[in-house]
Amino acid sequence: MARAGRFGPYGGRYVPETLMAALEELEAVYESVKQDQEFQNEFERLLRQYAGRPTPLFYAARLTEKLGGAPVYLKREDLLHTGAHKINNCIGQGLLARRMGKRRIIAETGAGQHGVASATVCALFGFECVVYMGSEDMRRQELNVFRMRLLGAEVRPVNSGSCTLKDAINEAMRDWVTNVRTTHYLLGSVLGAHPYPVMVRDFHRCIGRETRQQILEQAGRLPNAVIACVGGGSNAMGVFYEFLPDKQVKLIGVEAGGRGSDLGEHAARFRGGSPGVLQGTYSYVLQDDAGQIATTHSVSAGLDYPSIGPEHAALHDSGRAEYVAASDAEALEACVTLARTEGIVPALESAHAVAECIRRAPAINKDEIVIVNISGRGDKDMGILTKELKL
After folding, report:
1. How many CB atoms lie within 10 A of CB 27?
2. Cβ count near 181 (within 10 Å)
């Protein structure tokens, strides 16, 4: 990253002038706590004692046998408190908000896992919490809406646009502009204006750090491939980042291929997008010929977003990471396969990564290793699975 907040040409800080002071304050506080041992000790303590880290790295013997190729290991982020990797970042930003003296938190959520993690941390620290959520996502993720309210958060429905994550972020940013002096915006992915992409990635680096250590302990060597689903891209950056210097390790991000390749039928930014600015940052964006943001579709609310984190854009262009897409049908089938071979029901977001593993592993030599990051558990998706699978 040559300039602060830039990954090659991507990233930056494209926000209204009223937010510049808040972003500069956040950047200064974040830079200061990097070297603050007291902050780091408390962050590590909460990850360990409250969130449940380290999460296991599990050898999936029956899935490996079924696929007949490379051994498959699963990084079990679904076993964290609140059921997804999102709690790592929320604990980190909660500690930052407390240090800045801000006791009102706003957040946005798509699949609901970031909203639940935000509400959880706000309850832990005694903060007021407002979560913006598209009304379509509220319908798809009803259980998580109730969990947020049970934890004391106010969930505000967003009825504009496609009523999904993009629209929820727009409303959260409007709230932040109005209440910037008293409010911290707890952004949930490696998106948005600097310093969010860097900061959120750093709070999730523990995923890759643990994975690297665990596979060396269990297999005695590094993996040949690491696979993760990519919406905004926080779980993928968390597990990829520690392997970036290891050029022999393939990094594979899996986007939402949805129902088809036409614009509006998927959320695969590297398949149909082009560089542009959305919600504070310059990255790949799904947009029409006039530059209008395209509608998106995915069976997984957490991947249903028209842009992607700017660091992923740079990794794509450099070729250091490969990005592919899995369709709704492939993700649903992968969810069933993992449930029936290993007794693990992944979130539909994570099922996209499992689908790519199922596609790829049979053709990989048995002396190579594939790791899949299971970023969240599938409890929240039971309503969708019941409707789609008709078992």
Report:
1. 19
2. 9
SS3 380: helix
Please classify residue 108 by burial: count the beta carbons closer than 10 Å to its beta carbon, then call 0-12 exposed, 13-18 middle and 19+ buried.
buried
- The Cα–Cα gap between 355 and 255 comes to 11
Q: Which pTM does this prediction carry? A: 0.96
Distance CA 14, CA 280 (A): 4
Side-chain half-sphere CA neighbours of 142 within 13 A:
4
Tell me whether residue 355 is exposed, middle or buried, using C-beta atoms within 10 angstroms of its C-beta: 0 to 12, 13 to 18, 19 or more: buried
Location of structure tokens 């539909």:
348
Phi–psi pair at 10, nearest 5 degrees: -95, 160
pLDDT digit string, tens, across residues 136-171: 999 988 999 999 999 999 999 999 988 888 899 999
**Amino acid (1-letter code) at residue 68:** G
For 154-201, give the secondary structure using H, E and C. Answer: EEEEECCCCCCHHHHHHHHHHHHHHCCCCEEECCCCCCCCCCHHHHHH
Q: Are strands 370-374 and 10-11 parallel, antiparallel or unpaired?
A: unpaired
Q: Which residues are catalytic?
A: 86, 108, 375
